[in-house]
Amino acid sequence: xxxxxRIRSIxxxxxxxxxxxxxxxxxxxxxxxFRADMTIEEAWTHHPQAPKVFQRFHLPxxxxxxxxxxxxxxxxxxxxxxxxxxxxxxxxELRS
Length: 96
Hints:
By secondary structure, the protein is mostly helical. The chain contains six helices and no strands. The chain has helices at residues 2-16, 19-22, 40-46, 50-56, 73-80, 84-92.
């Protein structure tokens, strides 16, 4: 019974604390690396800034391409003559 009173006291203090203290902790979620075997769709949506990397490599319309669900990053880079490692490096820079 005494423990319940203590818990209530803690909760009451927490609820009366300034909002800056009550704020939920922010957690850093690690984004897995981009890989050559990802589909274009997976790479495009893997990180919010990924479309900007596609644009830098002159591939701004990949999100509307009919084969984006099937074609891998490696296949697309080969088809467009883009260095795969440079492209993946640019995408993976987003993770830091």
